[in-house]
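step 3/5: co-fold with magnesium ion
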Amino acid sequence: MASPSRTLRAFILDIDGCLSKEGIPIPGSKSALQTLHSNQIPLVVCTNGGGQLESTRAAKLSQTFHVPITSDQVILSHTPLRTEVVPRLKEDRVLIVGENCAEVARGYGLTKAEGIREYCRRHPTLFPRRREADDTNLIVDDSDDPVKAILFFEDPEDLGEALQLMMDVLLTNGNPSGPRVLLNGEVKQEVEVWFTNPDLVYSGLAQHPRLTQGSYRLCLEALIQSATAAAGCTTSHYSLHSTADDLQSASNVGRRLQAATVGKPTRLTGKTAVSKLLQQCDATTTEEDLEIWTVGDNPYSDVALANNMGWSSALVRTGIWDGDVSLLNGSARPTRVVDSFGALLQELNIT
Ligand SMILES: [Mg+2]
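step 4/5: write tokens
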């Protein structure tokens, strides 16, 4: 245990609904952020949004809040892929889901990253709706350059096109001009799949919740299960982040998609946040020395992250949640409920 005198407060701040709303600062959040900065208190901002480089988001935040935020202080939904995926798959073909996100992936050092639309253009028969009359490249054999991973950076631009291409890539273990080897239950899934946002829905301007990545994951899982069940595939293989659920489903007919998820409230995102907080401390500081607070408006994301990691959490009333704390279950139960991020700093006597 660290001695109390070594305990250093550090903050993981949610953006939307905590610091700002649709890019406009929430009253008090600008001065609260400036207070943390002037007290040299370690902080990162952490969002399940993505689709851009951390440096781009950092520049926008610095401009909005008049506080210097560096790219090392920004965790986007896909930031953990920099350590979990990029070092292994730098030179490999990877398929990127999300509008304009292939460019972001290439910026991460994934030299052969290709967006769904780019891949489709190179393989024009896969999604006939996109095929141009003068496309001559009818069958492209990628056996020497198979897709090694599908990375969801953001919601798909066109769900139909994305599902078709992902099914082709997954069932053929990376080369859609080859046989659908996964229809044989004995063959292992070789293409890694990473999602970067576990949420099924989010709250937008519409009357009812809007679908996001978690929902699209359900679609892909259902299609893989149904395609392999129809082929009489009765066994499953477990490799990437298997869970008890995976093992239980072994008796089901059809395959269970092997996939991993990062983003709040997963521990991989928590781990990324800790390493970025420690980068802002002196070299002798360890995780045990930090009293880490997550601050955010979503009990199932911001608070659950803290509970998954054993940290403290403050649930603010400036965003999507303004309910009764006693109705929240264990993993979503915060350490404190506060009116705003600014109010939290006052309660903690940080001035
Ligand atoms: Mg939020």
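step 5/5: annotate
Residues 236-242 have pLDDT under 50 and may be disordered.
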